Amino acid sequence: MGEELGARAYCSNCHGMVEFETRTEKKRIVHDGVPIEYEARAAYCVNCGDELAYEPYEEEGAQAFAEALRIHNGIVPLSIIKALPKKYHIGKRPLSLLLGWGEVTYSRYIEGHIPSIGYSNIIQRLFDNPVEYEQLLEKNRGLISDRAYQNSKKAVKAVIESDQPETEKMLEVASEFCVLSGGNIGAREIEKLTYYAQAFSLVVLDEPLFELEPEAWVAGPVYRRLWEIFKLDNVSGVYGDGRLSLEDSSCFDEKEEDLIKAVWHAFGIYGGTVLSEMTHREDPWLLARKRAGVGVDERCSEPIRLGDMRSFFEKRLDGKRGIRDMAKKYAEESAGEALLSIMGMQPS
Ligand SMILES: [Zn+2]
Question: Ligand 1 centroid to 47 CA: how many Å?
Fold first, then answer.
């Protein structure tokens, strides 16, 4: 893979410049007592098989290690820092100004300076949430040139529009729950059921049902657009602006349908209060709230990461069972704990 044609490197064993073979391999460096793993290319002498120091690969490896170390420390990867201005078509300097940072701050991060955790979280959030970026752009447009504003506005609009199909898919999952409940479902229930369907899909089908992150609201994970459409608490027969319908016109395949049904059968019997409490006891929501640094009753729109959902539920679900049993077992255990906690029988 990616052999450099005609490239040679020095082999101390063979005492000379030699041809080498390239292998991509997992490396591990213990840093402050913690093993940091990363992937990099390595060169091996074709004559004696010794690993050689080939400068481009050494450089590549050093960068991959630095990136892995940042991720380990909870710092936004350099790749995201570089991608953010491109994603929203904004210069580094105007971006710094929009953020209220020093004029050259963002350029420094691109050069490899490490941002604080606070700044790092802001960068990650803006990258993940085009709507949040758009709000920032609108609010602080006076701080940048009109041309910079117009260019960026056009770009962020395009990004938001390209997210649209994913929003449609999310609403489709929610509408499946409307159908399954016969229209008898509340806003909190539908949010949590959609969340669990997504979480189970990540583990069982190894991919998300839709590419959207929920936000870590006080009452648990919430898909904002779904909440906006589905504001009323009791909506038998009322489906917001009509986009959630009882008509079953699913865009999902059979496996996805089975999964959605399994989630309904396992979780659909619990009300919003129990479902909320269940999510409060799970890492993905807790981690997002922690990142945002908010108290129990504080508002928060921090996204819950799909990676956190996947790793938490992977640990909790027994992959050997069928999806129905798996969902049921998880729901029963989790609801039991949630009920005890609601009744104040154990510290939550
Ligand atoms: Zn050699």
Answer: 5
| Residue (of 194, 166, 175) closest to 250 by Cα position | 175
pLDDT of residue 233: 42
Is residue 245 predicted with pLDDT exceeding 80?
no
Quote the ligand 1 centre to 280 CA distance (angstroms).
Answer: 58
Q: Are 327 and 200 in contact (CB under 8 A)?
A: yes
pLDDT for the residue 47: 95
Say what the pTM is: 0.57
What's the topology of domain 8-72?
Ubiquitin-like (UB roll) (3.10.20)
From ligand 1's centre to the CA of 60, what distance in Å?
22
Q: Alpha-carbon distance 129 to 69, whole Å?
A: 24
Indicate the domain borders of the chain.
8-72, 78-144, 163-342
Secondary structure (3-state) at 282: coil
Average pLDDT over residues 128-143: 93
| Beta sheet of 34-45, edge-to-edge order | 8-11, 16-31, 34-45, 51-52
What's the 5 CA to ligand 1 centre distance in angstroms?
18
Distance from C-alpha of 287 to C-alpha of 297, rounded to nearest angstrom: 15
Instruction: Report how far ligand 1's centroid is from the alpha carbon of 20 (Å).
Output: 9
Distance from Cα 3 to the centre of ligand 1, integer Å: 17
Ligand 1 centroid, distance to 17 Cα (angstroms) = 9
Residue 7, number of CB atoms within 10 A of its CB? 15
Element (H, E) at 11: strand 8-11
Ligand 1 centroid–CA 43 distance in Å is: 11
**CB-proximal residues (5 Å) to ion ligand 1:** 11, 13-14, 45, 47-48, 50
